[in-house]
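Title: Prediction job returns without error message
Component: structure pipeline
Severity: low
Priority: P3
Assignee: unassigned

Description:
Job completed but the reporter wants confirmation the result is attached to the right record. Sequence as submitted:
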Amino acid sequence: MGREIGAKLKGGEVLALQGDLGAGKTTFIQGLAKGLGIKKTIVSPTFIIVRRYPVSGRRHLYHVDLYRLEEEIGKELENLGLTDEWGRKENIVVIEWADKARNEIPKSAIWIEFEYVDEHKRKIKTDII
């Protein structure tokens, strides 16, 4: 599913992902990156907050993980320069644990909710498809 969605993205999108640990957010982003043509291995930026990947024909994919942020998330997003990047049409920004910063994320963001069903199955809810 991530690969299919990634192939359709034009740039300028912000995808806001929410769901518990192990619900499939990072796996989804790995597929999305493949759909964008990214060959690098995608790993969660839990400890560094943001990873940036070049995308052919576009500027970058920004993979953001807000799991470790607790306070002043809006200020952190601004300090990291993310609020500037998600306004650019050539960038795609995907945010894990986006519900922690619901008020800071653009209103135009596409929200995707992940739910762990069992070891081999996940449930994904979104309006994008």
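Comment from assignee: result matches the submitted record. The mean pLDDT is 88.
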